[in-house]
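Listing 4. Sequential folding, example run.
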Amino acid sequence: MEDHNLIDQLIDTYHSLNTHVRTAADARLQRQPATGSSVEAIVRSMRDNELHFSQSLKERVSGVPVQPAVSGEEAPVIGTEADEDSTAVMIAQFGSAREVTLALLRGLPNAAWDQAGEGGASIRAAVSELVASDQRQLAAISAQLDGGTPPESGRRELQ
């Protein structure tokens, strides 16, 4: 099923971050390239985006509004973020938020994946965009670390 493929791709992203990025030296992750963002900044953005996505999905599935601290312009808070967080810590925080997303998605009935929500987008469309965003971010990370593009599956190490 297409939803299982999307779930697998979401898992692949976290696996790629864990196996490839977490093991890199902090100096490499913090290095500011001539163009674009540092790996650390990309991971921070991925973490923040995942926290927003997870909270929005939770609200949509449960019908319970997100906490005010999460729904505004400010970055979401899971209670452990700090400006000085290392990339490894941010990857762990990303993983915690991604697991919430995965648990919610795994519990959805098939029909719920295609129901239009506010703004007209289905959960399937939103998850597909999240997967596409993950792939763009992993490609940018790979370009920073290796000068290349990530493999088709995040279950293999980025070369």
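-- end of first protein; second protein begins --
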Amino acid sequence: MKWIIALWLLGSVAWAQTADPVVYFSLTESLEDLRPLEGAEVPPGPVWFKVEPGSTWEGIGFSSISTWCCKGVGGGSTDPHGPKQDHPHPGPYVDQRDLSGYLEGSVREFYMDCYLTGQPYEHTFTNFTIRSSRPATMPTPIGDLTVEVRY
């Protein structure tokens, strides 16, 4: 019975890993609010992108990952990728980019190459949309009342 439970637990762990690489984004340098990038609406300003290589890339023994961001691929924007970032294995595979100035509603591409001892092995990309920033709110006390002022 113990062996059956152990095998079941091992199988559960394998399901938790992704085979393909996944890109996450965070609005904080601490990466405490990571969310999947694919199809996300990302606000302008500083953003941190984190690549999780997945079991396929880990299984081939890759040597590095290169990333590019944020080519316009839709929504009225066609500008090229910014500078390439190289990340030797093992990571972390984190890029910080400033998305200020990108057109609201534009679709952007985050592109990755996986290298085996310096030779390109596989590439992939994920798309996301630039959304408008939310208005800042600040509670302003007036006597016993608190008024919310929106900018």
